[in-house]
Amino acid sequence: MNTTFRIVCPTDFSECSLNAIEYAAKLGEMYQSELYLFHVPDAEDYKKLSFRDLHSGGQYSFIKKKLNSLVEIVANESIPNGLKSCKGEFKEGKTVSTILEFVKDVKANLIVIGTEGVNDFKKNYVGTRSSKIVEKSEIDVLVIPRKVFFKTPKKFVYATDYIEEDKLAIQKVVEMASFWESEIDIVHVSTKVNSIDKSLHMTMVEEIKPFIKYSKINYVLKSYRDEPGLGLENYLIISKGDMLVTLSKKKSWFEQIFTNNLSRKMSYFINKPLLVIKNLS
Questions:
Q1: 90: domain CATH number?
Q2: Which pLDDT tens digit goes with each residue over 176-224?
Q3: Residue 115: Cβ-neighbour burial (10 angstroms; 0-12, 13-18, 19+)
Q4: Could you tell me where the beta strands, DSSP code E, fall in 44-109?
Q5: I want to staple 115 with a disulfide (CB 3.0 to 4.6 A). Which of 130, 146, 248, 265 is the partner?
């Protein structure tokens, strides 16, 4: 049985996607994975880049050159450090659906994608390319903001809403965090900590502790007078968290974070990567 880990990193050759490639390559080293750099050509963009007729093949020459250059850079740096392989692929089509089809074709385990940051989410998490991929993907997605360059994550912050699936999701976080011996803060933020919250929190800790075999885990219950999502943002800053992790399940933090009113106020997407866990198998 082939158990090779596979990462797909969509790229449009922008600074935003280059930062995502850096994260994808570093994770690829840790997972000893196959990495695919994938591009979906945009005809309008290539009209600006070439004076040739779009059907002459000139734009494809440009794409191949750019992809080959990126593949060479990644391969030279990361294959000696554990990355199994790096390949560049491109295919015409609608951006989101074409990316997700490619992800299925190669049986990928993780998508790493760049985003312009808070502006990408200011109206709703549905409506932009990056956020649509997060919404529609069946596998985990790591979202990297434009101005975030790779650094070894010292602390992961997992936002919990006390659901049973947290146990499996946290195992995935532990796997990633253990590569760098990072801390994990399992955090629940409510508008007012009451006896019910405290009881749920204690129950969660009692259930998870024997289930998760990792020593660097902290269990945190915080109250915040405004929306819980803003409290989570505040906690990320105060705790110096390097990556936010959320489980995409109904009535979970994922939905709370991306509601219309809340996302207009939040700014952590400018400088914090977000790992959205979609698949618990």
A1: 3.40.50.620
A2: 999 999 999 998 877 666 666 788 888 888 888 888 889 999 998 887 7
A3: buried
A4: 85-90
A5: 130
What's the rounded Cα separation, in Å, for the pair 50 and 143?
31
Task: Indicate whether 115 and 161 sit together in one domain.
Answer: no
pLDDT tops 90 at residue 135? no
Q: Which residues pair with 34 in a beta bridge?
A: 6, 85
81 sits in which H/E element: none
Tell me if 39 is assigned to some domain: yes
Q: Pairing between strand 140-145 and 274-277?
A: antiparallel
How many domains are contained in the chain? 2
- Show the domain range for 119: 6-145
Token pair of 189 as six digits? 């933020």
Burial class of residue 24, CB neighbours in 10 A (0-12, 13-18, 19+): buried
